[in-house]
Amino acid sequence: EEYVEAESEEHLEERPPVITIMGHVDHGKTSLLDAIRNARVAHGEAGGITQHIGAYTVEQRDKKITFIDTPGHAAFSAMRERGAQATDIVIIVVAADDGVKPQTIEAIKHAKASKAPIIVAVNKMDKEGANPDLVKGQMAEHEVSPIDWGGDVEFVPVSAKTGEGIDDLLDNILLTAEVMELTANPEAAAKAVVVESSVEKGRGPVGTVIVQNGTLSVGDNVVCGKAFGRVRSLINDQGQQIKVLGPSETAVVVGLNEVPAAGDIMIAMESDKEAREYAQKRAEYERQKELSASTKTSLDELTALIAEGKL
Ligand code: GDP
Question: Residues near 192 by Cβ (< 8 Å), separated by ≥ 6?
């Protein structure tokens, strides 16, 4: 199989945005993710059962939006620590009746460090004590300034309970994405990021990935962190078996030899041999890094010692 160069400009095509929702506990991250998913799951028949796989794609005005469905800041941090910029836009949820709290501030820090644009979802607007202006004031104190106050961040009032504002929120995501001009090359060798993983009965080690570039296909030889394998099947967020997965799309990958970690990058290789060798090199590198840390020998010194046959 021949692959065109990943960055080859003529093959760049628009790709859907990938979204992470962050915010303080109980402010409605899970509820909002559920409300969005239940409202508009892409490629699903009405009433189709959605599966929790760690990410899902919805459709809004014939455009796709992929959400990372693993609330909590830990997964986001794990991905960033591995250098995986898995998110294009960060939604920070703030409960309108509770205002800015410690984990809201943490979310702001994560979002700013990742340089991803922020949209604030002011949630629980259905509640009597809802005070969106208070939220705006508190967020502005943390340099998240509302557009209508002369800043650059959109604040969208929503209710995960009644569904109010969900449409606006999705429209705002599309507008932000349009400005970002997100592109990928569907013809390149696949590069994807793992958002969730587990061992499943009958399937073995599996990982939910979001494709960042290229197209991942059933039959591809892949390396993923220390794991490797051949893609045996791809199962989307509707539980359907699919053959190919394009940029910003998500599916469970079956066929790995071991469980990958959240944040691991999956790369399609030309051959089974190459994938295996690459995975072994990665494992060896990890082993050396651990040895280096435990013996306080630098990685370079260690590599030299190994080369000289002294280790
Ligand atoms: P998370 O910890 O951020 O994931 O928050 P959850 O989604 O678990 O929500 C925490 C609580 O707030 C639950 O009892 C939800 O039912 C409730 N909740 C979430 N969104 C709304 C909303 O828009 N309106 C109201 N009234 N309650 C909400």
Answer: 209, 210, 211, 212, 216, 245, 253, 265, 266
